[in-house]
Amino acid sequence: MQKAKIYFGSTPVSKDEVESIKSPFNDKVVSIYPKCTKKDAIKALEIAKDAFKKSKDFTLSQRVEWVKDVAKKIKENKEEFALAITKEIGKPISFSRVEVDRCIETLELTVQAAIELSGETINTDATPSGKKSIAFYKRVPVGVVVAITPFNFPLNLAAHKLAPALIAGNSVVFKPTPEAPYTGYLLAKTFIESKYALLNMLSVVYGDVEVGRALIESDIPRKISFTGSVAVGKDIAKRAGIKKISLELGGNAATFIDRSANLDYAASRCAVGAFVNSGQVCISLQRIYVHQDIYDEFAKKLAKDTSKLKVGDPYEEDTFMGPLINEDAAIRAQKWVESAIKEGAKAILPVKRDGKYFYPTILVDVREDMNIVCEEVFAPIVSLVKVKSYEEAIKKMNSSPYGLQFSIFSNDLDVVKRFIDDAQAGGVVVNDIPTLRFDIQPYGGVKLSGIGREGPKFAIKDFTEIKSVVIL
């Protein structure tokens, strides 16, 4: 049994009243965590506030050693972290190991980014109204940060918030996803128990609406960093008040398969992009716009490659797809597909649900007015839309209220260059799936997909403020 604890600063605390997490794979209780209240959230914030007041005594070198030590400890215990992920969210173990490796990379990139972070000198005599002086700006921590993370990448997405925030000199109150509390706890515990840990700079509380709103509405935090749904993101934006906010929200990722594309390669990659992590990825490939001249051929190749993907026991090394996070999600996916079929779409693979498992589903003859392409499905469902030209494809791709990541498969350089300029998205991928993300890059969206950018170099700037200095 995996038992999480609250951290009020560096002090671990247990409670008699607990919540339990059941494995999406076999319904066995795999972890328990303390049931937190609004009072617990406020207590954690007060501790973070006091800790930040003392943080000016800590040097960057101390914070660098801290994050480096956390990366080292995770390397030494990779399998423990991977198993925690698989137990709580049912992610296939091979992909859980990939997430652990990415978490380590994120921490190491954070160290590099923090060392390179700098200010700039300003020429105050550049204008007639100016005056010769010594002028510069420096970056300083914002203060208390609230970090709220999702279930689909419970380790790496937490690292993308905690490491940049802490290394920048902030104190943090961390609320991990209710679906994977122990994974979040395990990461926080590694930070807090490090021999380089800075006292009380990180707290951990658990919960959903009550705890989340208490953290967001308080006047103590200076920065809210949230990854999750659009609905919750909108609520945060309304309730937060005058604070810095970064929101990494939903997506409806799309790609265009041009006539010049390598169809074998495109189909094999699209099968991965649509169904990895059971489609529970903000940049999961949901819409594929295919030129009419190659539409039928591509659909056959995609169906063939998809049928090779193993769905099953997440503890088996060759399993590609495990269960969805809960049965409600699987039922919702089934309803999405049934609704689309009633509207005229066709499934080219058998539509199958078995409890929390929803098998990879490819829909053809999909129209733009169907909900299946308008909303984020967050499930292993991909829709193929036939288009007559690049112009039609990009128009339909951009018609979505989301704009996280888009991609194109094409060997026509002119089309690729146009796509880079035309795509209304935070990220563009050429000749691969929109699900591709390197942790070193800036990551975030436009429109309903969010505000701000993650990626260590870019997150650190979000977790700091500019202080301007003039010396006459």
Count of helical regions: 15
Mean pLDDT over the full residue set: 97
Give the N-to-C terminal Cα separation.
Answer: 63 Å
Derived from helix and strand composition plus strand pairing, the structural class reads alpha/beta
Helix percent band: 25-40%
Describe what this molecule looks like in 3D:
The protein has about 475 residues and is of the alpha/beta class. The protein has 2 domains: about 270 residues, Aldehyde Dehydrogenase, Chain A, domain 1 (3-Layer(aba) Sandwich); about 190 residues, Aldehyde Dehydrogenase, Chain A, domain 2 (3-Layer(aba) Sandwich). The chain is about 40% helix and about 20% strand. It is built from 15 helices and 25 strands. The strands form 7 sheets. A 7-stranded mixed sheet has the order 15-18-19-14-13-21-22, sandwiched between helices. The protein has a 6-stranded mixed sheet with strand order 10-9-8-11-12-24, sandwiched between helices. Strands 1-5-4 form a 3-stranded mixed sheet, covered by helices on one side. Helix 4 runs parallel beside helix 5 and helix 5 packs across helix 15. The longest helix has 24 residues. It is globular and about 70 Å long. It starts with a strand and ends with a strand.
